[in-house]
Design a protein that fits this description.
Layout lengths: L10 E11 L2 E11 L6 E11 L10 E6 L7 E10 L7
Length: about 90
């Protein structure tokens, strides 16, 4: 019984809102839920910092982030994959 337990890490999908930091992106994650009393669908936005090792995320990209160990004071997520990238034109 020397098998290591595989921990299930949380995975979120969000939109990159800032990439001005080195190896860090700011990601907006939108959560939708129904209000318990009024039954209206409510949108809540949470802004998280994620580690981007290769600095290849741009503003407007949809990325998938995964929970990881604390990397800095506010950074507890890392970019796992870029789902859809925004085309940048260098005109």
């Amino acid at each position: 019984m020397n098998e290591e337990k595989q921990r299930h890490r949380k995975i979120q999908t969000g939109l990159v809102t800032s990439n001005s930091m080195d190896k860090t992106v700011s990601v907006s994650v939108v959560r939708r839920y129904q209000h318990p009393l009024y039954k209206k669908v409510v949108r809540k936005t949470k802004k998280i910092l994620a580690h981007d090792e290769t600095n290849n995320c741009n503003i407007g990209d949809v990325v998938q982030v995964v929970e990881t160990r604390p990397l800095s004071r506010r950074k507890r997520w890392r970019v796992q994959a870029v789902i859809s990238a925004v085309e940048t034109s260098n005109a």
